[in-house]
């Protein structure tokens, strides 16, 4: 077996080479995807590398792709299927990090933290803040996969009511165990004080949060997106922030860096982070270990975990 990893330049490549040397000595690591040809049968990538027909044509022996990420919308699934190539992702390594990031967004927005920090830095001393508590709020989760489930676990001590929507309804015993309730998407948008999105980007989820869904939200409610930017209609979101006072936490963008000329970046009720919700030291270590372990499973002739195709 020969494996090739294409990694972005900001990742500590030497550290990864050292970690993989003993168990995957055949692993070649590059930060450049412009090579002419590779005879590797295993490809490891992050979401920063586009896996399309152009790349696949230069890897004629490829049989298995491992995406070291939860998302895999950088991969042309139709092309991978057509060529009979297996594909796996790592959907669990960053669930703790994303869940904590979502709760951070919710608390920052509930407590008006960004505005208060700016006022104090400007020499002002606000007395009444209008801050709200998380306890007692209705928290809506769109997408109850590994991250959505971990978010539920982290929210339980805050004593919130939890609604969820997903393409699959959980078994009743699991709903009762977590104390959560399934509702249709429109009802979730209408009833929730805080909404967090955790769905993959597909043809069905693209722009699933449109002007109609946003119009159902409570005035001043909070919307948090750590999944993919394309899930929300940005123009409709800007309108909802301006007209309904929706408060928003955003970690993902259609292109990165984003277009900072967008009106979104001039709105006071929106808080941003640079696509780092799942990027902690601990989560990156887990991604590395899970990726290596899954490639080893393939090498040993076992079915890879988290297989997508």
Automatic annotation (TrEMBL):
One of its GO terms (cellular component) is cytosol. Residues 38-308 form the D-isomer specific 2-hydroxyacid dehydrogenase catalytic domain. Keywords: NAD, Oxidoreductase. Pfam families: 2-Hacid_dh, 2-Hacid_dh_C. The keyword Oxidoreductase applies. The keyword Nuclease does not apply. InterPro entries: D-isomer_2-hydroxyacid_DH (IPR050223), D-isomer_2_OHA_DH_cat_dom (IPR006139), D-isomer_DH_NAD-bd (IPR006140), NAD(P)-bd_dom_sf (IPR036291). It comes from the Archaea. Residues 103-277 form the D-isomer specific 2-hydroxyacid dehydrogenase NAD-binding domain. Gene3D superfamilies: NAD(P)-binding Rossmann-like Domain. GO terms for molecular function: glyoxylate reductase (NADPH) activity; hydroxypyruvate reductase [NAD(P)H] activity; NAD binding. Signal peptide: none annotated. Belongs to the D-isomer specific 2-hydroxyacid dehydrogenase family. This is 2-hydroxyacid dehydrogenase.
